[in-house]
Amino acid sequence: xxxxxxxxxxxxxxxxxxxxxxxxxxxxxxxxxxxxxxxxxxxxxxxxxxxxxxxxxxxxxxxxxxxxxxxxxxxxxxxxxxxxxxxxxxxxxxxxxxxxxxxxxxxxxxxxxxxxxxxxxxxxxxxxxxxxxxxxxxxxxxxxxxxxxxxxxxxxxxxxxxxxxxxxxxxxxxxxxxxxxxxxxxxxxxxxxxxxxxxxxxxxxxxxxxxxxxxxxxxxxxxxxxxxxxxxxxxxxxxxxxxxxxxxxxxxxxxxxxxxxxxxxxxxx
Length: 269
Hints:
A seven-stranded mixed sheet has the order 3-2-1-4-5-7-6, sandwiched between helices. The chain has helices at 15-29, 51-69, 87-100, 115-130, 174-182, 185-195, 206-227, 229-236, 238-243, 261-267; strands at 5-10, 33-38, 72-75, 104-107, 148-152, 166-169, 247-253. Strand 1 (5-10), helix 1 (15-29) and strand 2 (33-38) form a beta-alpha-beta unit. The protein has a domain at 5-170 and 247-267: LmbE-like (Rossmann fold, 3-Layer(aba) Sandwich), CATH 3.40.50. It is built from ten helices and seven strands. The protein is α/β, with parallel strands linked by helices. The protein starts with a strand and ends with a helix. The longest helix is centred in the last third of the chain and has 22 residues, at 206-227.
């Protein structure tokens, strides 16, 4: 793993953790830097809290994750379920990227079930060229080089399915990722079990909660490792590639700086 400055841009607090928490831990262990940027404040995803209460709680949860794992966790002041690909929001996202100045960006794909995810992806893509345009968003210094942009994995197939460009073996970081998710209690212990219909499965003890989170969320990294097993074998060789239990995958976006599949996988080795 090379030492890089990675920015992961999700629509909501916890999107970055879900889609790339293991890779983030690997980057940090290699001496790199990681920023999680939530484009919304996540203030609509709860069955009991008011919007104001939830925004404050979710911000505190993100900061606890950031403090524990050494992640710069940032949250923009846009309401949950209200992210739009407007010029105003384009300026906010452009400024956020410029102010962190990453080497590589991860974000959603523009085809996704959640309008906030789609519009977050669109905002990042709309900002890609503008990052180097000095007269746009002049309050944040323009970047001299556009970052590499990668999309995070999903299972949607229309208009086109995800095709991995980068694989990251995250087996050794799965425990930290599950702990990271458990710290976002308002979501993984309360809201998501309620909205997805398994609230009666939530255990009272922390170990049981971790097991539940793995069953509903962590298992995705196991399933994806099996789904893209041939890619893991291509990258890591037959013996290691077949032994990997958990992995995260990313797809190159041509709007950012484009480097080869081989170069990308060497960075995330």
